[in-house]
Amino acid sequence: xxxxGLAEKDGRMYLGNAMEKVMFSVLYSMVKDNDVNNLLSYIxxxxxxxxxxxxxxxxxxxxxxxxxxxYVTNPLSYxxxxxxxxxILLGIVVGFVVVAIAAAAQVAVSFESGKFAGISLLALKTLxxxxxLLGTVLFMPFLEVLLVAVTCFGPDNSLIExxxxxxxxxxxxxxxxxxxxxMIIFVPYNIVMSSIYLETTPNRKSAMARVPIGxxxxxxxxxxxxxxxxxxxARDPRFSLAVLIPxxxxxxYLMIAYQPFYKSAVNQLRAGIFSAAFLSGIxxxxxxxxxxxxxxxPIVAVxxxxxxxxxxxxxxxxxxxxxxxxVYRKLQLKQKMLPQMGKLAEEGGVRIIKTAAIGDSENxxxxxxxNLQTITTLRTRPKDIRVFNNVPEVEIACRFVHNNRSDEALxxxxxxxxxxxxxxxxxxxxNLVYAEYLENYTPPGNEEPAxxxxxxxxxxxxFDARFFIFMQDHIIEQSKRTEGxxxxxxxxxxxxxxxxxxxxxxxxxxxxxxxxxxxLTHVRTHQxxxxxxxxxxxxxxxxxxxxKATDYYKKLISRWPKSKVLLRMYAAFLMQIKNDKEGxxxxxxxxxxxxxxxxxxxxxxxxxxxxxxxxxxxxxxxxLQHRSANTVYNSQTTVSRKASLRDRTRPLAMxxxxxxxxxxxxxxMMDGSExxxxxxxxxxNMDEPIVREIVFPEIENIEPETYLRRxxxxxxxxxxxxxxxxxxxVTKGVGFHGTFKEEDEIxxxxxxxxxxxxxxxxxxxxxxSEREERKKAYHRAQLQxxxxxxxxxxxRRQKLGLAIYLFIVITTIAVGxxxxxxxxDNISGFARVTRLSRAATLAVQNVRTFVQPAxxxxxxxxxxxxxxxxxxxSIASLMRNFTTYYVSYLAGFYNDPATIAVTMSQLxxxxxxxxxxxxxxxxxxxxxxxxxxxxxxxxxxxxxQLEDNRVRFFLDNAIVVGPAFExxxxxxxxxxxxxTMQSVYVLYSLCGLLVVTMLGWAYVVLxxxxxxxxxxxxxxxxxxxxxxxxxxxxxxxxxEEQIESIADEMTTTAGNKEDGKNNDEQQGNNGNFAxxxxxxxxxxxxxxxxSPIKKHFIRYLAGxxxxxxxxxxxxxxxxxxxxxxxxxxxxxxxxxxxxxLMQAVVMLAAECIYFDPxxxxxxxxxxxxxxxxxxxxxxxxxxVTGVNCIATTTIPDLxxxxxxxxxxxxxxxxxxxxxxxxxEWFINEATDFLxxxxxxxxxxxxxxxxxxxxxxxxxxxxxxxxDTIFQNIIISGNSVAKTAIIxxxxxxxxxxxxxxxxxxxxxxxxxxxxxESTVTLLxxxxxxxxxxxxxIKKFVxxxxxxxxxxxxxxx
Length: 1355
Description:
- It comes from Spizellomyces punctatus (strain DAOM BR117).
- The protein has 1355 residues and is mainly alpha-helical.
- The protein contains 46 helices and eight strands.
- It is elongated and about 135 Å long.
């Protein structure tokens, strides 16, 4: 296809209206140069993807899955219980979306107006960050927040999450409308950005670089939208599972089959997470279908996560090998079968020639007529082989060129893409991907990427493809421009970034030189200049400026590697500041090679209009365009032609270390001249299939000197060839002293130093110079090793400290979660046993009712029979509770000492004995006798059973069992407290270990390193105090010259208003201002007096504090919560003793009424009633006022129940009054009854007795409810604390990484940089000066091991 068939406008296809161009410009500026740290990218992607696992861990799918389990993998999905707190989350979402809209509008306006100021650059960076977060880790949490506001499916059109809020009603209308509007913006924005906000460069520098084919990211976003909407809106577990499993299966398949990321590790990581989510969904479906309440399934769900991850990783790796192997196998098979398309086919002994001409002779006619059936059924054309199953496989099969860029590998890449174009001729994305491969893996100056981008334009590309075409157009255009980086040749945002970074590099370069000048000036002139203890502060300032300049230069060169100006600026920096001759030579050579290549390409016809008709482009297009036709061609010929072409178009310049420029052979090919011994078709026929062999001369047969030339620039060479004229300049030497053109200048420089020996007459040989250089490098390395040793020791120790710190936080969260879980598991049993004393007392009262029928007159039998039936029902219920709760719980007290005195009858022998038991033995006996007596009928008790030892057990111990089980309840409380306190003691120990670690970190790790490095700096820099005045003056002069050179460059940039652009003018003015500002800086006495290590101490200690705070909070939370739980448990046990005392009052009041022969307390019931009532009054007073417990009136969760809302049925006429009021009512009525029974006999019809009997049942129910409230307080509080420690643990782990990178490693690197600068400064002293001063010479040659004390005083 000719280029004229591609509609172009100014070299590009018109892709849309002006608005689309502005939008593409904004998007391009966002995508281009959007460098994100690979480690941070991995963290963001991992955090984003594991949110899918949270759906599978939803508690609605399991019987016993903890509610916090889903927040482990997606903590951002937590929703507050209060609507007011939810509005805060909604406000955060609104803020993010508004910031994104405002930033996008600012950037768009800047592009439209052509004015891209500093605020626009800030807006662009903000837009990048917000878009990255909104599309990844914040996408599903923010979408859930917005969906919650429109889930109007509750009763009365209310929100499901917040039933008290009605949609579109009154004050809530605004929130609903805002949420709808935000979703209209938020959802489409992320869908669009998912298709284009991608790094697509296949050089794998970015871990997140991916292939745009397949639109996997867009599908991922759409599926996440569906999944989030279903789980938020539907709330039906079956429907949710029906959506979750297919979506995670689709995501796993897409990641395994398409492998969109260039880095295999990223594909495997994401495939593993998706597979883990899929298998977890399967387990969730099984759990929901079974309906099991077992803890086993939640455990299996957790175990499935790593198993699924491993399965996904292995499946991804296996799929990659399978895809590539299948493609290569089919491609080989197809290449072997292609020659058969032009050969003879035989069938049944009849030879049919496909290209044969059938004549009109009778024999010929008879031949084909006789074989008509065979001819019409014979298949002479081989069956077409479909190499690829989908478009992404084309690119997957070419990923080997990431690691192998040989000519053979690139030829195979071409063949694979050619087959892809034959199979998918209308796919624009495939053309774009091939263009990117050519741009990244072929030599500079290749015009073929532009051709395939133009071809993609003709294929009716979709929106995302049009954007990538737009982006590739700009990238290719900028790659052609190795110079002239200005606002007219760069994207406007890239230009502003370029200018900002270039000014930053020059500014810090100049700042470094100024700091060196200040140091040398201080040594030479300052009154304290001969005190080495004042030197390290200058060293710190020098190293900081040097590091900033280095960072700027490296970023500049990584983004614009073809700028000769940048390469030479960095080379000068390496020479002047770092004394790195080898590095400077490398970058200088690179700049010269680029310049030479530019010159050659400018003089050839390669860049004219007919360049696409040249040999390289024509051969490739011919091969790629016509590979889909059924053309007869020789495969071996093509390979020979291609291999020969590779030899000429892909020279050794691909080697990153050696740049080789093709001369004669490449020039002939670029000019379009015919290779020797092989005439080529006319250019008019270049698009036709090539069917004959084309032979190029083998490069190996040509002497390399005839067509290759390696040009190196030796920046440290001091001699100039005789042919060089006087105008040729020689690069300045290392450090502050230059290398001179003439030997007399060397002698003059050497004479500047006091007592400096005259230079030698003879020029040392090259071998001798190399030996001296190696010796000097050895001394330098030895000194560096000595100076950096304390820092390396610090690094090892601080890693050990981090390991101890992580051990503390991991142990803390493990102990904390274990203690919370243990408390939750045991609190229920402990709460149940607090009811045992009341249950035992009620059992005694029921047995008392059983034995009364034999002593009641016949007229009282009906009423007693009703009471007997109630007693049987009551004791049966009590015994069920005994066997379910009490016996099993008290089995834990089996080995307790026997301290409870129990009266045991030996009837018919009238002997009673005292037997000592523990609580477990007593409860077993109560249960055994209670079951046996409760199973007896009315007739059994018609005769007196006072001689039954079981009955006598209850009657004789009626006053004993209640207090005995109260003691057992206190023992259970103490056991629960001891179990909780064990974890508290462990946490106290960890807290002490944390304090010791932090203090040891400061005094054992940080302080020694700082002191040792400071001492080494002073010892080394003390050599400057030995320097004579004249060498210092000349060193200062050299530095001044370099400062003036850099300042002139910055000022010249300020005056160069290229193209009249406002941005050039603004950036230039900024550079001029920065130069003047830096030149006017002075070093005053305050700077000299500053501590050189104070800054490092503050940063390091701030890091330790940042480490210690979350760890301390992590320790405090479980300790505080454990103590609060203990207080609540004690309060529950203490206050609920009122339940037993009220039941004892009722039992004793009944005994005061009856006075029949069955009594076990002759003449004593009134005394015991008075005793129990007095204890009840005192206990109730203590419970309300907070004596020996937490006041029940001060517990928020109990206030409503105890003061107003406790039911009172039926004793109070079905009223609802507070529990405290009911107890006080009970106490008043019981007191009135006691007063009357003391003075006269009271009958069973007494109103007070009947009231307290009826009210006691209601009070027991309410006090059981108090138990439940206390348990909920403890469990919910522990749950909140558990969430808090999980969050604090995450913060602790994150702060570990943050502190290590921002504080610890930064401090170590800063000290290493200072030590490096120390060595650089020392070796910047001119060699003749070093040789003339014995102390310095000895110090340098010994690697800093020896030094002479006592600097010579200046006269």
